[in-house]
Design goal:
heterodimer, A: alpha/beta, TIM Barrel, eight-stranded parallel β-barrel, 10 helices, 39% helix, globular, B: mainly alpha, three-stranded antiparallel beta sheet, two-stranded antiparallel ribbon, 5 strands, 11% strand
């Protein structure tokens, strides 16, 4: 009789958002001392046809697995995907062959007069059938172009589309929309826990953690391909907590992460810190906390 | 989905539309702050020569006057130099517009397509008629004209040693001040050459003769034509060519199409 071996528990996969300020430290980092399983780059920072960013990316790739995170395609936009920007994105993905590719559940541009104005931001879309059809079509176009599925990140938002136009009311819940989108487009989810918490705080949810975790429990586990962890500034703008990625991961976010890892198992997890950047070692410490939570789950 | 157009319009024209929601204000603030950050990255020399609060105010005015139509913030700002030139409050800083133009050019040079240095191609100079050959210039190779001594101003903003008070800075400032005074009386602008040898854009001030020569190189005129500049001193061709190769201003030799 064959003895059945117990499969080893999978190792956590913990990454770090790599920003310009830390290129040197990242390249000199001793991964043996403090492992970093992958780094995430913002796609648009590497769209240049040539120059130092291309060389840097080659060096980074020699050391780390890569996640390419798009911030400007605006897949929920009513307008067609711009072919030149799409081509730049495809070229980057083809060249780097990253372990993960992701974008956002948002729109970012519209025709005003006879020009396309581009907000440079991640703007909320309505959770209704028209938006669903629009974003599914754009995701499929992108996936066809890069020949692989992508992950779509849930958004933090400061208003509802129906605040602007009553006919653009939501007809489904956010997570209902996300699941339908994934099923129809064949994509996965990048679950941003900080965005969920910021939304819950801004909506004055009485039980912020419980409300966020309850939503997550409605997701089929296989759809979640990555988790983002981040912090937010307590300083409010126009009455809102802003998802500025300028702080250490919040205590609430760590707590939610512990619950989510226990529920979903090990999912590639990224610590995001994009503004008000601290020393590299502070970021590394954040990944160590994430790893210890993931191991302990 | 009219809300997409309405929201974008409200973000760009916050305060003027019907939508006064606090959320719109957040997105408007994000646009302004992201834009100021992007412009300070694309125009570091301009940012160096004005106070931070003045730069923020200038960038904010520009962002409101020139809505972003580009996907990438790195592509936004081409008309910033013209905006500065026309700004009534900046007439006392007439060099600022030219610095913006220089910053923009440098940003384009830094991002221009890579090329491979083809050392072996120089053997063509001995094998082919020179009127059939052209030089392959370095990435970003471009000649630009400015009245003010922008290369010195750029150096002042970027050379850490010039930030320290001392003899070096003192001598530099003396020369710079004279060049600035001379600029007012110039009838024709001065030329500079920009190129990218490896990863860092370089600037070279050119005299009239060098401007004519490098313009031919930029225009892909034949090597025969370029070498005609040395008709009276053919022995200088080798020295000149070696210098261009060492400085990586020329990346190779090509047969003309």
């Amino acid at each position: 009789m064959h003895k059945h071996k117990t499969l080893p528990k999978p190792e956590p996969c913990i990454g770090l958002g790599l920003r310009h300020l830390h290129y040197d430290q990242a390249l000199n980092h001793q991964v043996e001392d403090a492992p970093i399983d992958f780094v995430e780059i913002h796609a648009e920072n590497f769209f240049a046809k040539g120059g130092i960013t291309r060389a840097l990316l080659d060096d980074v790739q020699n050391k780390y697995s890569l996640s390419v995170h798009g911030t400007s395609l605006g897949l929920g936009s009513q307008m067609a995907l711009p072919q030149d920007t799409l081509a730049q994105f495809v070229e980057l993905v083809n060249r780097t062959q990253p372990m993960l590719v992701s974008e956002h559940l948002c729109f970012n541009r519209a025709m005003v007069g006879n020009k396309i104005y581009h907000s440079g931001d991640l703007l909320p879309i309505a959770y209704n059938d028209a938006s669903l059809m629009q974003i599914v079509g754009n995701i499929q176009q992108l996936q066809d172009a890069i020949k692989r599925p992508i992950l779509i990140e849930n958004l933090s938002a400061y208003m509802l589309p129906s605040d602007i136009d009553e006919s653009s009311a939501d007809t489904m819940q956010e997570f209902e929309f996300l699941v339908s989108m994934c099923e129809q487009a064949g994509c996965g989810l990048l679950l941003d826990l900080n965005n969920l918490l910021v939304n819950a705080l801004n909506q004055k949810s009485p039980e912020v953690l419980d409300s966020a975790f309850a939503k997550i429990k409605t997701l089929p586990a296989h759809l979640v391909g990555e988790i983002h962890l981040a912090g937010f500034s307590e300083r409010q703008v126009a009455g809102f907590i802003i998802d500025d990625h300028g702080q250490a991961v919040s205590e609430q976010c760590w707590q939610l992460y512990a619950q989510v890892v226990k529920h979903l198992g090990h999912v590639p997890t990224l610590v995001e810190w994009d503004t008000n950047l601290p020393e590299w070692q502070v970021l590394v410490k954040q990944t160590q906390i994430a790893r210890s939570i993931a191991i302990g789950a | 989905m009219a809300y997409q157009t309405d929201l974008i319009e409200a973000i760009f024209k916050a305060g003027s539309g019907n939508h006064q929601q606090a959320g719109v204000q957040v997105y408007h603030n994000n646009f302004i702050e992201n834009g100021i950050r992007a412009l300070s990255i694309s125009f570091p020399t301009v940012a160096f020569f004005v106070e931070e609060t003045d730069f923020r105010a200038l960038a904010r005015e520009y962002l409101l006057a020139q809505p972003k139509t580009q996907f990438d913030w790195a592509d936004y700002g081409e008309s910033f130099a013209d905006f500065i030139m026309a700004h009534p409050n900046l007439v006392e800083l007439p060099f600022l517009s030219e610095l913006a133009e220089l910053d923009w050019l440098i940003a384009q040079v830094q991002r221009s397509e890579d090329k491979i240095f083809e050392g072996e191609s120089f053997v063509l100079l001995n094998e082919q008629a020179l009127d059939r050959l052209v030089f392959e210039p370095a990435p970003g190779f471009i000649i630009a004209k400015f009245f003010f001594p922008v290369s010195q101003l750029y150096q002042l903003a970027n050379d850490a040693e010039l930030a320290v008070e001392g003899l070096q800075r003192s001598a530099f400032m003396q020369t710079l001040n004279k060049s600035m005074s001379d600029a007012i009386n110039l009838d024709t602008p001065r030329s500079i050459l920009l190129w990218r040898p490896d990863y860092q854009a370089q600037i070279l001030s050119l005299d009239d003769s060098e401007t004519a020569l490098f313009t031919q190189l930029q225009n892909a005129e034949s090597i025969d034509h370029i070498f005609s500049h040395f008709a009276d001193t053919p022995e200088h061709i080798s020295t000149w060519l070696s210098e261009q190769i060492v400085q990586k201003r020329i990346y190779g030799v090509l047969l003309k199409n």
